[in-house]
Amino acid sequence: MTVLKTSLRNFLAHKGRMALSAVAVLLSVAFVCGTLVFTDTMNATFDKLFANTAADVSVGPKKNDDAQQTGKPATVPASLRAKLAEVKGVTKVEPSADSQQLTVVDGKKKSLSPTSGAPTVGTNWDERQKKSVEITSGHEPHGPAETVVDADTADKHGVKTGDTLRVIAAPGDFSVKVVGIATFKTTNPGAALFYFDTPTAQEKLLGSTGEFSGYGLTAASGVSDEQLKERVSAALGSSAGDYALRTAAESKEENKKDVGSFLDVMKYALLGFAGIAVLVGIFLIVNTFSMLVAQRTREIGLMRAIGSSRRQILRSVLVEAVLLGVVGSVLGIGGGVALAVGLMELMGSMGMKLDMNELTIKAATPVVGLAIGVVVTVLAACLPAFKATKISPMAALRDAGTPADGKAGKVRAAIGLVLTAVGGLALVAAAKSDDAAAGSGMLGIGVFLTLVGFVVVGPLLAGFVVRVISAIVLRAFGPVGRLAERNALRNPRRTGATASALMIGLALVAALSVVGSSMVASATDQLDKSVGADFIVQTENQQPLNPAVVKAIKSAGHVEHVTEYTIVNAKITTPDGRSATQRLSAVTPTYADDVRAETVKGNLKDAYAKDAMSVPEGFAKDHGIKLGDRLKVAMVDGRTAQLTVKAVTSDDTSIDKGAMYTNIATARSYLPADKMPLDFMVLAKAADGQTKEAAAALKASVEDYPQVKVRDQSDYKKLIKDQVGQLLNMIYGLLALAIIVAVLGVVNTLALSVVERTREIGLLRAIGLSRRQMRRMIRLESVVIALFGALLGLGLGMAWGTTSQKLLALQGLGVLDIPWPTIIAVFLGSAVVGLLAALVPAFRAGRMNVLNAIATD
């Protein structure tokens, strides 16, 4: 009880000094708890949606990843409906006619598809839909010219009953009038939904009134879902294997897998950044307790002199850590809930409106948050606590302070140098590796060891690097600059620990900047070297191009030629007897001019002759394929061809790496027209001197199809840069949390350092140092520490990024690009961060009463 009282007294006595450490714990715990609450809420929302929409037993087409991408959904025959209705225990058979391969356009030729990546869904209206939505305006769709729109899409795009929309689907375009608005009873997962009557959905979305997307079966009372599934399977007999039969629970699980993969990526990415924040927070807490122990040296010595044991001293410090962990964790749990609400609002702005009533806080979430906060805080406080137990009572009472262990410092420096050296060798090995998997393993080892090595050797580096930075930055400030340098070097271990926290976040920023910039530079270089086409035409959501779009492009003026590009799935049997399903790039012969693929054998233009093809270098080597070999190519859903290998393409590229080429006419000759995949991309070459006119003509030709974008090479390069930039900006935003915690560490170090040097500050003021000079000294000390951390972090990050690029070069991304403007901006920004971190400590130092400061014991 005495230990608890002492710890509580010390904790409250230093509550101001503990506040920043508590904020670090709060932020770390908030990120973890916020992630858990958000993902649990998402899972609960989708679970409820899937539970409301799943039939007792569903019958649909069997999933086939090798099927040709014709733009039409997989279907089951309409004749199956009568057979299912006869199964004992089936009370209702509800057919569905669904497609996600459509675009809906309003009267202003504006696409109504979500911009969040969620699908646009067209489906038939029946009793099944009433489980999830209700018509709140207008009426149900009747006939081929009517549709009902979900309320969220209608609100977002200003769609009203009476408006006319155009639906662009694979079977063709058609116009409909909005006759109703449907509101979700649960949460709209972000999709845009359009409902049609059943015959219209069959004909216009699936391409035939003799097909359905699947059937939902309702079980009779007393018949379980499993029993009904078994009966359906028995009724279908040998053809049961051609269909996917699922109970409601299995359908729910299948749907959860599709959504769960996205949620898991988000969850673990956010938790990863939370882990980085926790790691950075450890440095802050270690520094806080190290300085508090140092400042209470005499107090601890007195406690030891009057009979307190080493164990009691240890327990006293650790109890303070537990109190800090509990306070920070409790606040962090509340902050996590607020963060989850913020993420839900963000998802709402992107089109996925989550109901706050669905906010899910599982019992495990606060337990996890509390455990992380307390355990991390106690572990971080262990080293200072053990150091406190080593304080000699007599030495402490003489104000000798905590004994410095020179031998321990040398051992630490030696260990740090060894770890850094071994980590550096691992990075070199990764950069020189010819195998991506082995190189990635060495990269991971190198990143870990160099990071730990830099943290351990930080105090040794501080002595040298801080002097160099000071010589460049502080000399202009005269005696005040020299005082700031001396203060930063006074305790290298503290300076190293404070800078290490900032180093971690900035190292990740630098590494990702190098990788991102190199990816953009490599892609740009490949475009310049390989792509001869003037224009690239694709849909925004990477869906196949509607045949009408391709026809319109071909009719555009000022165009020399148009190249079609699609992917055909085929089972290829090689001369060594092995067979596997591969993807054939089926193109028109002008592709050889539009994309200059290097060959190691033969001429690529010859591969576009009738019944000819090319293979990539690696594939040819693995299967012993030579020029002139005939490969057995069985087109999926089509006939088998014997194609002659006319060219072997180089693997030293990132554009179409590993592609097998054949003439699109060859593919069409072995596939039925309704099984031929739609074009995924179209390339166009402008007539000589008519680039501007061709661009205008191509854009005019696709004006009625807003989902289709015509880009020239500069537009495409910008698209790549923007996509990489968006990803990096999101990552930078998440890393900002770690950097904020690191900045708090700088503030905490300076604040405690000011308290520690109270008498010294008073003496400096007494001999003539002005308040302004005092504040400047604290600010310069902060800038030096921040620049030290930035220099280490940026140097380490560039090493990681350069090694990563060398590995990416194995995939064709061979250009290393160091984003110096970003690196320099981050370095200079670190100086600004140092200035901001010093504002409060500097202000406090400047306001000290000189006489009281000198009299401080």
Automatic annotation (TrEMBL):
Its main localization is membrane
Q: Which is one Pfam family of this protein?
A: FtsX
Q: Where in the cell is it found?
A: Cell membrane
Spell out the InterPro entries in the cross-references.
ABC3_permease_C, MacB_PCD, Macrolide_Exporter_MacB
Name of the protein described by the UniProt record: FtsX-like permease family protein
List the GO molecular function terms: transmembrane transporter activity
Q: Where is the ABC3 transporter permease C-terminal domain?
A: 273-393, 734-849
What cellular-component terms does GO give this entry? plasma membrane
